[in-house]
Design a protein that fits this description.
The structure is a homotrimer of 680-residue chains. With 680 residues, the first copy, chain A, is an alpha/beta fold. Helices cover 31% and strands 21% of the residues of chain A. At the A-B interface, helix 2 and helix 4 of A face strand 20 of B.
């Protein structure tokens, strides 16, 4: 979705304020150059304090003021935190999870399949939509917020799951065989006997249930979208605030939502990106989060939440707030909205601070936000709707992520703390990021839907989405349908370049491990196979680094060995290989690498395939795309606490200053500073 | 309460002995110079083996023997561990807690509000009191033991809590606003809807419930006291065995009891103090525990429990048992009672050893105890009822402790493992201790009750309790009613000296963060304010140390900067400040300090305000007071494993040897040794 | 039990295969020289897919193929994992444990006392036994698998426990006194009041319940044996797959089973031994597991499960699979069976890999297994039924293990993570192992049953089992009946040599600590006693090492001090002592030792008692016994990654090559290699 302007603003909750200061706040926003607020998503109990008694006075106050101060409004359906009376009415409304049913108080703990919840969701959504009909400042709707299944797995949900399995497999023998349920006498002997999945030790069953839970999320969002669409005008968008796999900050693929499927009901993808700060700010999460958000609808996206002051450890250094905002834009974001405007005076997020501190007056962070607003007001039109043109793409897949949760790399058993799917994704992604090799993300589901000729001859599967990329990367694509593996093989055969890591192609889509030569279907393409793997103990690679986490013992079968094992027990095996296959070639990585070795391998492979990388590397980050003037826009960021310099290889205009930039002439960037060049 | 003599002895449980050896035991006690036993507090099932059938034979045996051996007796009500038949009678008698209801077996797990429990408590207490009426050796009563609410939060308790809130706030709007319950739709829309507090994410609600739980403890002890008082004679005291915040040993303020309020029904405060030993013995817990115990009734106190051999890691080195006992007396304790006399042969505390080991004969620890008994017999009268005359006082507050549990310093979220309120208290207290700056403790509630003129003009609040001190210290007084902040301001204005740390005055008494300039009400007094704070990462202080845990970025506004940040991002901010305000002055510490820096800051401030510190410092500890002869008594302790020497600046008498001490003449103390000087 | 041949093979589950490949598999087995499969123990749901409908087609397929390929078969009763329909029929069939009732899915989670479970166990067992009657390849039966009580402690079990206590103690006063239940009012006042043991803080009660749970296991196995025996022919054996205390691998005594008692119903003991691999392979677990397995029936034993590829971290280096197999034989094992044949394609153990990887073809591990099979085919007859002739024996005891769980060495409280009983056993065992002092294990129960003259005069108790050993070792024999202590005393008096560690003899069989001089009954024998102990903090031993974990302060009373404390506080105490007592002598170790000091102490004591140790030490391991030819067989293993050499002191034949070995002539062993010498 194209936007008229870059949206800049924050979430706003008049409901949480110690007193009504909407006028004062919006004046401060306006002064900062902000042009949008995002409201509503967690205020059900204020808007419907008793069942059926609606009170939209605070909402009206915000909308009135938005008109006065000309702020656009994104309004959320207020359904992700339920009012107390709803819990009293339906004592079973809270999701029954792996840890049993929860207690009222927290957000995001209801059963999203509960009929009573759905009925009252619809009522409050319709009441709100009726109430705000015709309000001019509303530009779009957010469905719920960071929706998940909240691990709902009570009796009703499990019955639906049994139905789903029955539909899918037809008969029990097929299910028992595919999932290997004979193991430990887990055979399901009657559809009515399907045991509580919370007890299962069968990874296939568990993974299928988790897929089913993701489908519940999709179904819930589609359902909300269908209601909202009844009221929305044509120029109003529908979005969601998708979040990411979380390791104290936005880290990788979200395990609990199939964002690609869920977003089909939406106009534009939204997301929230949180990251480390101060000395630990690298911009990698901004790029990673952006790549995933772009992939959801293969389009520009909104950053609906990101940090201003953030949590206690994240208070940005001077310059970092600016650096972050423009980093988002350079990834194709059409908005930066902070969470949230003010710091809250009560309850659990009081120290997840907003643009304003608790004293509700201007402060250092606010003042820096003002400079961003000014820049956007002046130059935003040259930045918006940036089209990325990445040469490489990384394939991500929810079920592969689950696969490595069920069978962790280092133990082979469920181990939430280990080196996981997102770690492997980040091992690859971050090395590319530091090398300034910008990457798209492709959702495996998106690929599957783009298969041609697949139903008749799986071997001849071709996926059109792969073709535009010079380099396709599959980090630990553990759960791989045969069709997808064939498509990759055919991509390579036709001249494509494929970089795969360990575990790619190891199991099918139900986590059933393939029982033939590994990597399944692709071993010829890689020119090697393997039968054994282990966790290395004092194993040195030929790079001079110690192997860590996991190694496959690759048996060369035509390939070139790029990295070997400098260890007497494994000297006959390869750790990373290169192989020409028909018109293309492949690089296979059989072990985890440290950042330096990972970068070296990617550089070497890029070199081999003629993919030219920028000369500068991290901490100087280069990101680019084409703007609405059809000009190449190149951002150079200094992600370090020291001044750096570089020599641009293009001439153009410094977007923010209007000055000319001459190719070949050194440019200096102060700590945490950046420059945007619009090529002539 | 004044005592005739220093009490020296131990807890005694004939009930736990493998055979009846009361005569043998009391003879050994007598030989050791012991003069008191403490009995009864956990023996309900022995004294009432069937409902209504009382058997006090073992109690009689102990009382008979106490008369024979002239041992005083402190008798406890046996209510803190319930008999099995009571659990059978009332299956719901065990407290329903945050972790659900417990199982029978442990002590201190019943619901202290349960009517059946209360009824049977009263029966056993009255039966016992009737039975022992007229017994001459009984000098006092202990109510229950280490009483808490045991986190009782079942339905009945939560109903009472709703009643309490209704009384306090009158209407729901007031409650919702003050607690910020609109956040995450937590608004309470009906008094009958008050959700189970165990689910809440609202810190104000949770903190209020924890205050309510402390009130249950107070109410329970007052109720027991009212029964005991019907039977007690005028010369018999009533006490309780209060304990402390615990981190493997007595560490700081007890979070679960408002000891100041609870002790109003008692004659004298009692406590149990446990501490590290061997190389880790510093005496700090003895001084800290003593300061808190003195504050409860602003008077002398009893040490009702402390370690002799203690747990496995605490077996004292030679000399330490003596050092410990006299350290207690130097803090104003009128007793040292060991827990317990013998090491127990079964059950969970078998390795929490007594004066006697399991072999029940004399051993090294017993023999050292004998020397203490002999010294007390000869010189105890010059040591008892010591009146302390500290120049400094530290304000402690239960709700501020809770505040930093709800919002931990380093994460802003609940984090029981972090750098907490008691750590901050100990950061300050221990530095004072090592500097030999003896401190009193003042309970915030005690201060609030001593406010003058407060009801009409909060701004002119004055607290008489502050006046007697040259220096008032507020470690992280997070939860601060405006009245108390005004009192501190007026104390300074009138010439007082105030040392406050970070977080002081940040929220009101309901953990609602103040929404104006910080530190609330006191920023003028400190000559600075702040808007931002963070967890330091590689931030050096001007002291040369790395900042740790938490820093506030103080903006000087008239103050002197005493400690700054040696870091380019924070160079404009202060870390510790000094400011003259009207007739007094203040020192504000905006960051955590290591022990050396903390000591240096306190020394500097003492210097500035003319408070003279002793020349000796830890490991030589000086503690003093005035004895009943109205003479200054000064203890010098060697808390180290090496011999030390010092030069006293007073002349007097070595209390234990009777020898003359001459000012200016060097005195040598062997490892773990001490000397007591009664000034001429 | 003597065997005709050494059994070599693996577990096999046609039920788990992705397709029927029994023919292909057995052919591969045969090629590898394997001669046995072990089947059936977890396949109930395949064999009885609906209640009462039996389907043994896969079993038949395996048995048919076993006849075709001449593989022996050990068949297990399939009762350790229950089918789903059984859980539906009996919703209470899953054990109600300390963590509440489980959920269906896992193995080994049913209540083994449940009448419905027992009824259906009997049905499936009888159906299976009827079905296979007359099958010639079946050589033996395995009862269930790794049976435990699975912590069943629901109401029915606790009622039975109350009955058991009533039988044992007769009246409540006796029970209350022996268990010290007066403590914390835990007195049991009515047999019907016995509180849920899950809440108890009384270690004696808890330990007795755990003993009772072990008795349930014994009873269950005896019951299964009685059924199987109705069908078994005289030449078919009955066994069980006993496992070990587990710390990520087989570590020590199994806490939850009294294997000595349970095995009385069996023909031969079986076990599963798992261990670290690669650089961490030491062979100690193979020796330790073997010693325990030999002790169960004081006879040869079967290794029914051990690793081939094993889990991800265990993939063996070249040579290790051979080394491991022959290490088992050198301990007296008459079999090596791998778990399992193939790597499984679904569910939780997919990465616990078999002989074959998931690709189900030959691989490096398989090829090494082939060499073992060939060696056994040729030379197995000279290796089987090896009779060990150890000079030393270590006494192990389930209840002492529990004692140190209830009262951990370092805290005196329950602490599952600490330095525990098995750590102490391994401290001793592993030192002996490294010194090549081969040890037997003696079960305390076995000793108690061999007491002579005990009933009349406990003091004159003599145990015939002790007599054959030159050296008896008691690691932390915490829970020691007086009779056993007398037997040890009399063993020493008669000329025996006793090495005891700390905590030996500290409590009686009910974990009631003895209330007289420690070590109880044995202090004269040791020539010392002690009253105090602690966790050392900076305490140096006279060996120059720091003391760790725990020290007793031994007071010499006639003994020689072999290790003292190099610490001013403990200089008068001993840490290890030596004492001649009548015709024998003793060595007592009062502290934990590091491996070097432990070896030195054992060497010194062996020296003192004239027990000659081999000259070679770890990594060269020597193990020996007498084979069926009545010849001394000596194995030399190289447990290192480097070549080593040694000089044998006997002449004989290299069993595998047939070459002559000459005493005094150096022999070289490559990394992980070994040699077997049959003495001339």
């Amino acid at each position: 979705m194209r936007t008229d302007k870059i949206l800049y603003g924050s979430a706003y909750y008049l409901e949480y304020m110690p007193y009504n200061r909407v006028d004062e706040d919006f004046k401060l926003m306006k002064k900062a150059g902000m042009n949008v607020i995002r409201i509503g998503e967690s205020t059900w109990s204020t808007w419907e304090p008793k069942e059926g008694r609606f009170d939209f006075s605070l909402l009206d106050a915000m909308l009135d003021a938005s008109e006065k101060y000309e702020l656009d409004v994104i309004i959320g359906t207020p359904t992700y935190a339920i009012p107390d009376w709803l819990t009293v009415k339906y004592p079973d409304i809270l999701a029954d999870t792996h840890d049993g049913p929860g207690r009222y108080g927290h957000r995001q703990n209801m059963d999203i399949t509960h009929p009573g919840y759905r009925e009252h969701c619809e009522k409050i959504i319709r009441a709100m939509l009726e109430h705000i009909k015709g309000r001019k400042t509303i530009i779009g709707y957010q469905l719920d917020n960071e929706t998940k299944s909240y691990d709902t797995c009570g009796e009703r949900v499990q019955k639906r799951f049994a139905e789903y399995l029955k539909q899918k497999f037809g008969n029990l023998d097929a299910l028992n065989l595919e999932f290997g349920l004979n193991y430990w006498s887990n055979r399901i002997t009657d559809w009515d006997h399907l045991p509580d999945v919370r007890g299962t030790i069968n990874a296939s069953l568990n993974a299928e249930f988790r897929k089913f839970q993701r489908m519940l999320v999709t179904e819930f969002l589609w359902w909300q979208a269908s209601i909202v669409r009844e009221y929305a005008t044509d120029d109003q968008f529908i979005t969601q605030n998708f979040d990411y796999g979380w390791k104290d900050y936005s880290y990788g693929l979200q395990p609990e939502v199939n964002q690609y499927q869920a977003a089909k009901c939406m106009t534009v993808a939204g997301c929230d990106i949180y990251h480390l700060s101060q000395d630990k700010l690298t911009g990698a999460e901004i790029a990673m989060g952006g790549a995933i958000a772009r992939s959801i609808k293969r389009d520009n996206y909104f950053v609906l939440e990101t940090q201003s002051q953030g949590n206690i450890t994240w208070l940005p250094y001077e310059g970092q707030l600016r650096l972050q905002a423009f980093s988002h834009f350079s990834s194709g974001a059409n908005s930066v909205l902070y969470w949230n405007w003010h710091s809250i005076h009560n309850a659990i997020e009081s120290y997840w601070k907003g643009v304003l501190s608790h004293d509700l007056t201007e402060n250092a962070t606010y003042l820096e936000a003002c400079t961003i607003g000014q820049d956007l007001a002046t130059h935003g039109n040259r930045l918006k709707n940036l089209k990325k043109n990445c040469k490489a793409a990384i394939i991500l897949d929810n079920q592969s992520l689950v696969g490595l949760q069920e069978f962790s790399l280092e133990t082979g058993t469920p181990n939430p703390g280990g080196f996981d799917y997102n770690d492997i994704f980040r091992m690859i992604f971050d090395a590319c990021y530091r090398l300034n090799l910008e990457c798209d993300v492709l959702h495996a589901d998106d690929l599957m839907e783009h298969m041609l000729g697949s139903s008749l001859h799986p071997q001849s599967s071709v996926c059109s989405l792969l073709e535009k990329y010079e380099l396709i990367i599959t980090p630990a694509m553990y759960s791989a349908p045969a069709q997808l593996l064939y498509a990759l093989k055919n991509y390579v055969a036709a001249g494509g370049h494929l970089l795969s890591t360990f575990k790619t192609g190891f199991s099918n889509e139900h986590l059933k491990i393939y029982h033939d030569k590994q990597p399944h279907l692709l071993h010829e393409c890689f020119g090697m196979y393997y039968q054994q793997f282990t966790v290395p103990s004092n194993v040195m690679l030929s790079t001079g680094s110690n192997a860590e986490h996991f190694i496959e013992l690759l048996i060369p079968d035509g390939c070139e060995t790029w990295i070997g094992y400098d260890n007497k027990h494994y000297s006959k095996y390869a750790a990373a290989t290169y192989h020409k296959y028909q018109k293309g070639d492949t690089c296979y990585l059989g072990c985890a690498l440290n950042p330096q070795d990972m970068e070296a391998l990617i550089e070497r492979y890029c070199n081999a395939i003629g993919l030219i990388l920028p000369e500068v590397q991290f901490p100087i980050i280069v990101k680019s795309g084409v703007n609405e003037n059809n000009k190449q826009l190149t951002y150079y960021f200094n992600y370090s606490d020291e001044e750096v310099s570089f020599v641009p290889n293009v001439s153009g205009t410094n977007v923010l200053t209007g000055k000319n930039i001459q190719a070949g002439k050194e440019i200096y960037l102060k700590e945490w500073d950046f420059i945007i060049i619009e090529q002539n």
